[in-house]
Amino acid sequence: MRLEEASEKIRAGLREHALIIVVGLMEVAYEGRAASVLGPGERLLIIKQDGSILVHRPLGYEPVNWQPPGSRVDVYLMDDSLVIEARRISPQEILRITFHEIYDVHSFKLRDSAEFAMYATEEDMKKAILLEPSIIESGFKPIEDERRVGESGFIDVFGVDSKGNLVVIEIKRRNATAADIKQLINYVNGIERELGRKPRAIIAAPGIQKSAVKELKVYGVEFKCLTPKRCHEILRKKSGLERFLD
Amino acid sequence: MRLEEASEKIRAGLREHALIIVVGLMEVAYEGRAASVLGPGERLLIIKQDGSILVHRPLGYEPVNWQPPGSRVDVYLMDDSLVIEARRISPQEILRITFHEIYDVHSFKLRDSAEFAMYATEEDMKKAILLEPSIIESGFKPIEDERRVGESGFIDVFGVDSKGNLVVIEIKRRNATAADIKQLINYVNGIERELGRKPRAIIAAPGIQKSAVKELKVYGVEFKCLTPKRCHEILRKKSGLERFLD
DNA sequence: CCTTCCGTTAGGCTC
DNA sequence: GAGCCTAGCGGAAGG
């Protein structure tokens, strides 16, 4: 495909705010927060109407180079090459793609207004605990969620146990780390300062990093195994009755 | 485009391990570590020969759904739809794309053996300091890089200043945080235990978060402004002479 | 604007 | 393989 023709097609796609696909032999250079160069190779370029731009090699999940939404895209011909530049300010970054050959150009005007719904997030885990507190332990009662503690941040779930002890719960959807436990300790200290009583500290997560296990004992933190999947199932089971309360 | 025809094209692409592009009206469901659903909409599907699979909406840098390399891709027709499933084990995950209409299918056999070179990483910053220690301060001399300190981890650069004081340097390519400073303090304490002398602590980074500034004074840590760009330039300038030593 | 935190993080490295 | 850390992380939410 002649570069002049490709250039026209790409310009047309940009004008009408289409999603554009370009396949060809290209070099890529990036300079901004970091810098990279990539020699000639056959790749797929995607330009979206919001200025997102992605260079995909034949292998791998991730784009090798990219620019997030909001970048300005320029196209010009130079020295037997077609050059596409995507710039953004803040941070100042430039991505330059130099095509030596172009095999294919397509542009598409896509309509997509569907809502994306994701389940089994950390937020869902919190909802599940509030909905069915016994998954933490029998007799546990939540008092507040997202309680602010001084400058430290927000407690995921704050409550009392069956014996009337205060309980601070930190939720993680992935294995808990030593940093997570330190954060929890900050909350415990904050609550003790504010209320004059030392609360129990529970970290609820699907697992815990080995390096963090010793921290548990050092700081007197309890670990409660809780998976995102389990929480998702609880929400699904209860949703028939209670989702309309949302 | 008829779904039967599209199905044949996609199968052919899979057989010959091509990169495949499908544009059409689709629904997407994902279940695995988390779960998501996405109703009908016009999107771009990319299937790579290594089993990477990406669903891109008309806007945004990120794919809305995906599967990393190594997943198995199946294609079948069902109830006036074309279904593409990508499964992987460990973690057990499934991505199901149901096409109601297909506008375009293309497959490409791409050759791309170029090496990707990235500059101005944290590693590059360390190299720049070792190559030109005066960018930290006049008279600074590196002794070791990646020195292990007990269980804490590795010091980026360990050296002595012009007055013979030990110096521990922590490098960050982004603004330094309070956590970075605490990490550095761990190293300082480790070195003091090991060598019986308290070293100076320097954090070298392009900037520092406001919340971390007070930690500097509290712990007696020094901040040295050092940008990845500057380090990259030093490496480039010196590379004429010294790159062949690598 | 800056900071903080989450992610189906992915990817790379070590053990 | 599991565990741990980094990223041009991107993105969202809060200040």
Structural description of this entry:
The structure is a homodimer of 246-residue chains. Chain A is of the alpha+beta class and 246 residues long. Chain A folds into two domains: 3-108, Protein Yojf, Chain: A, CATH 2.70.180.20; 122-236, Trna Endonuclease, Chain: A, domain 1, CATH 3.40.1350. Chain A has helices at 3-15, 122-131, 178-195, 210-219, 228-242, and strands at 19-31, 35-47, 53-56, 65-67, 72-78, 81-88, 93-108, 116-119, 141-149, 153-160, 166-171, 200-205, 221-225. In chain A, β5 and β6 form a beta hairpin. Residues 242-246 of chain A have low confidence and may be disordered. Chains A and B meet through β1, β2, β7 and β8 of A and β1, β2, β7 and β8 of B. β2 (35-47) of chain A pairs antiparallel with β8 of chain B. Chain B binds a DNA duplex (15 and 15 nucleotides) through β4.
The second-level CATH architecture of the largest domain in chain A is 3-Layer(aba) Sandwich
SS content category of chain A: alpha+beta
What portion of residues of chain A is helical?
Answer: 25-40%
The biggest chain-chain interface is: A-B, 52 and 53 residues
Order of helices and strands of chain A: HEEEEEEEEHEEEHEHEH
- Oligomeric nature of the chains: homodimer
Poorly predicted sequence stretches spanning 5 or more consecutive residues of chain A: 242-246
Number of domains of chain A: 2
| Average pLDDT rating of chain A | 91
Could you name the CATH class of the largest domain in chain A?
Alpha Beta
The Cα radius of gyration of chain A reads 26 Å
